[in-house]
Amino acid sequence: MLMNPRGFASDNNAGIHPAILDAIIQANTGHTLAYGDDPYTSKAKEILRRHFGEDSEAFFVVNGTGANVLGISAIAGSYQAVICAATAHIECDECGAPEKFTGCKLQTVASADGKIDPSMLAGSLLGVGFEHHVQPRVISISQATEMGTVYRIPEIKELAAFAHANNLLLHMDGARIANAAVSLNCSFREMTSDAGVDVLSFGGTKNGLQYGEAVIFLKPGLAENFKYIRKQGMQLISKMRFIGAQYIPYLEKEIWKSNAIHANRMAQLLREKVTGLPGVTITQSVEANGVFAIIPEKVIKPLQEKYFFYMWNEEKSEVRWMTSFDTREEDIEDFTETLKKLLRN
């Protein structure tokens, strides 16, 4: 039996939560209609509606990039622009898919902590109504951000108000939305529907699901024709029951919450253990399940050989350590002891 050590590279590297795996197995009985016309998908969508409001409408897709690309496709035209942080996943980690498949231009905003606010966006609104310029249409934010920080609810409301006052829509990439919710001690609805978000990419793969994200439209009318956009975008899954089956216990049994609480707590423990070590500097507030740090270059490769993680900024010798729902305290103890030994050499 192959045993893979728990590392700190990505919460994507963790396995499937046992209760989620059991739900998939339980759904693997008999025949049911395909393409989402099954009772599992129907029940999962109804549960999501309870979390996000009666006006919300959810559509399941395969992955986060698909959710982001298709969600934006539904609300923006090819002559329009999406404004996002320079570190946003849609800018850095989706291989140009948002621009290729939406036709939109991404307009990035520099941000030290991955968050943007209205004061940074004035330059993005130049040329409105001028036919020679791309027209701004969407502000996209990540919750939690790619820097491990979390937007507070008043910050989201401020961005939503700015967007709507300027005839824009607010999109949220919620790949780590569960980690953000437990960080803020709030419900999903409080930081999305109630805060003015228009379209949400709801992620669970980084938090114990096998696969399957949701595009959730939070305002009436925005989902018009999305079923065709999803099909044309190659994200309509035939055996969708195995996505819906995951979401039922994930939401009803609050697996999303317990998993995220644990992952966030492990990140705080890791931060505590490495703070004060010689040559180690924490570079971002630890608000979800990511720890960013500058460490001596000499220790990076030998440390990666035992506990793999990714470089974030090679020029600064900055690394990213991600914790997961199955990270153990002993993993962190051994990791930090290994780091201490390397620092002493």
How confident is the prediction overall: mean pLDDT? 96
Q: What is the level-2 CATH architecture name of the largest domain? A: 3-Layer(aba) Sandwich
Low-confidence stretches: none
Multimerization status:
single chain
Total count of helical runs of at least 4 residues: 12
Helical residues, percent: 25-40%
Cα separation of the termini:
35 Å
How would you write the strand order of the largest sheet? 1-7-6-5-4-2-3
Q: What is the rounded Rg?
A: 20 Å
The geometry reads as globular
Number of strands: 11
Strand percentage lies at: 15-25%
Main sheet attributes: strand count, strand direction, barrel closure: 7 strands, mixed
Structural class: alpha/beta
Order of helices and strands: HHEHEHHEEHEHEEHHHEEHEEH
Return the CATH topology of the largest domain: Aspartate Aminotransferase, domain 2
Number of domains: 2
CATH class of the largest domain: Alpha Beta
CATH superfamily of the largest domain: Type I PLP-dependent aspartate aminotransferase-like (Major domain)
